[in-house]
Specification:
The chain is mainly α. The chain is built from seven helices and two strands; from the N terminus they run H-H-H-E-E-H-H-H-H. Helix 1 runs parallel beside helix 3, helix 3 packs across helix 4 and helix 5 runs parallel beside helix 7. It is found in: Cell membrane; Bacterial flagellum basal body.
């Protein structure tokens, strides 16, 4: 009877951690994936994990179970949030470009983040997801949540949730997200800034020119022409982004498991 109750509680705790991870991590948290598939995939992973986890929980009091469930929920949320924060750098770069080119007036619903995003941000986000799937990055995301059970055991508590180390690391992730996002958008933003100066000089020297009818198509044309040249650099920055994302997941596991 005790063995059955312990196994059931282990499954519940593993399921809570994996499910909370799935609702925050990139790709898997998108609304384009039905909720029933997320739950089914979480159940399959939980069954596989419980079979290799041998950590009996001796106390079955209500307070202990509530604390352990809350701990597992926070661990899964934080681990997925670290990856999601850094992955948002792609969306940030697209938003900065759309603001410069004028596409910010049009927006599309982004099922990955569940919000409205601009055209360039949506395009960059689709490219980033395709590259992540093509390079088996989603396997590394799953490996990250499975490795968390080695760093943070089920009966253990996580002091990092209360002492401020985790929040400090999340702020560092936000800083890296902004830095990578600006690096992705900097070449085109600099080019469009020079184009704005040139078009402004033309507008002053030729005042009879219809600025609002000629300049927006010219900026859009230059934007797409420059995109062809900077696209290889975008894929290199995606490589840097993914390395930073997986490294940050490893670091947050070390912080919570210390």
């Amino acid at each position: 009877m005790n063995i059955d109750a312990s196994s059931l509680l282990n499954f519940l705790l593993v399921f809570v951690r994996i499910t909370s991870f799935m609702v925050t991590v990139p790709v898997f948290s998108g609304r384009q994936i039905p909720a029933r598939f997320k739950i089914g995939f979480s159940i399959v992973l939980s069954v596989l994990c419980v079979g290799v986890i041998n950590e009996p929980i001796h106390s079955f009091s209500l307070g202990t179970m509530v604390l352990l469930i809350l701990k597992e929920f926070m661990v899964g949320i934080v681990l997925g949030m670290v990856a999601n924060i850094l992955f948002y750098a792609v969306q940030l770069a697209g938003a900065l470009l759309d603001l410069q080119i004028g596409f910010s007036m049009a927006s599309l619903f982004d099922p990955t983040f569940g919000t409205n995003s601009q055209l360039t941000g949506r395009f960059k986000n689709i490219l980033a997801i395709l590259v992540l799937l093509a390079t088996n990055g989603h396997h590394l995301l799953i490996q990250g949540i499975l490795a968390s059970f080695e760093w943070i055991s089920l009966p253990a508590y996580v002091p990092a949730l209360m002492d401020g180390r985790m929040s400090t690391f999340l702020l560092e992730c936000v800083q890296q997200m902004f830095m990578i996002g600006f690096m992705m958008a900097a070449p085109l933003i600099g080019t469009l800034f020079i184009v704005d100066i040139a078009l402004g000089i033309i507008a002053r020297t030729v005042p009879q020119m219809n600025v609002f009818a000629i300049f927006p198509p010219v900026k859009i044309l230059i934007h797409f022409l420059m995109y062809i040249f900077v696209l290889p650099g975008f894929f290199y920055l995606l490589k840097v982004l993914f390395e930073t994302m997986f490294g940050s997941m490893n670091s947050i596991l070390k912080i919570m498991g210390a």
